[in-house]
Amino acid sequence: MTVSTVPTTPFPDQKPGTSGLRKKVPVFQQPRYVENFVQAILDTVPDREGATLVVGGDGRYLNREVVQTTLRIAAANGIARALVGQGGLLSTPAASCVIRKAGAVGGIVLSASHNPGGPDGDFGIKFNAANGGPAPESVTEAIFARTRALTEYRIVEAPDLDLDRIGRARIGAMEVEIIDPVADYAALMREIVDFPAIRALFASGFRMRFDAMSAVTGPYARAILEGELGAPAGTVVNAEPKPDFGGHHPDPNPVHAHDLMALMLGPDAPDFGAASDGDGDRNMIVAPGRFVTPSDSLAILTAQARNAPGYAAGLAGVARSMPTSRAVDRVAAALGIRAYETPTGWKFFGNLLDAGLITLCGEESAGTGSNHVREKDGLWAVLLWLNILAATGRPAQDLVRDHWARFGRDYYARHDYEEVETEAANAVMEGLRSRLGCLPGQRVAGLTVAAADEFRYVDPVDGSVTERQGIRILFAEDARVVYRLSGTGTAGATLRVYIERYSADRLDAAVEEMLAPVVEAARALGAVAALTGREEPSVVT
Length: 541
Ligand code: VG1
Ligand code: CO
What we know:
alpha/beta; Alpha-D-Glucose-1,6-Bisphosphate, Chain A, domain 3; TATA-Binding Protein; 33% helix; binds alpha-D-glucose-1-phosphate-6-vanadate; binds cobalt (II) ion
């Protein structure tokens, strides 16, 4: 075998964001760009010698090429064994599952998640640690520092592997195992979710649609829902992973999953609708006639998890990202368990899960997960919902209504201002920051500001501190606005404004109507139009 040491120079922009390094495809196509980043990752894994590494991605454009490059670099850096999903595919939760099961030192996950794919789309590389979760900030910072200092990378000169043939192969001294990407994941689901109950549900005529959005979850959903649980063929639509996701935006929300929404809100809606994102870690839940916000879904799953075998013993605690609505907090209080509030991004849940402080966690952006892996898990959330529907016998729309009747309803919307000038987006945040002290007591759009601060997180497990994680404004009228800048975008800046309002007894009002004054207050306080030139957000979800 020939190991080459190739001289290189650093790229200045390889800083991981909310979830790994995400850039436009042409940026990743620059010579040495992928090699540098993968070498920098491996340099920060001290015990890589003789270790197992998991490699796979969401199948987007460049996936196969980057899998091959990653394997060659891994082989040249002392990795003894690589586990690769067939076709180079592994959903993000399945990668987490395989890392944990194999006792791997970590995984290199190729995904830009919900961002569009194709030659002009986005690509991404993320490192997951031995616990199966996204590398914590300390590690991503070390990776970034390493990218700035790199002078060479090591690579084995070898022909491309056949990624489609399950079995063993070698690159230099490294053994490569091409594995069925679904098997380990399906086995884990069988342990924690009541498959016989779901099978009986489908056998009784229950109908659902799962929209895989031409992304990685297709093969998983087909094998499990149609193959194992007896859902009729055709339940899973857009099931073939495509390098450009069929030209769509693989983001499961009411805007991008419009076909599913149209079906579920129409006269022929099946009993349950769901979708997942590019890399399979997000989920969208739709009951007939009713979209379930991810924040509500987290709260409902928390309230009902005991119906599934994996959670029958109860929950240790729960966590939500700060911008996620406070619906789950009410459930936690009723259950007598702790609710933690973390910054946006799954990497902050890892310590809480590892320490056994929480069992379930989630984000407003359609991410829900549990201690079964260390990533959010789209299909798992759908299976847990099905388990609960089977166990309670309640139609999905009634289950949601029952939940609100017991806990009240958190009306919720997220307004995204995409591709804003970076300076303008920063000006919104700076402006708010500088006025935090004088906001309490102010009246705006008929609401009264009760408190305003900038979220700062102290990790309860290791004491690490993460600053500037979003500005939150609480109103006396049980409403809240949160402002933060996205850490996953690849063009300009994206300003996210999260709007919510709680009502204990108005359960069936129109969302827009309930939120109208809060939206008005959010725009006025942030001076969004004046600073960005945008009268309206680009996407409302
Ligand atoms: C977004 C979401 C965040 C999520 C992240 C990764 O980040 O808001 O909740 O964890 O994407 O999701 P940001 O910084 O753009 O708001 V995905 O499915 O990568 O894996
Ligand atoms: Co994702």
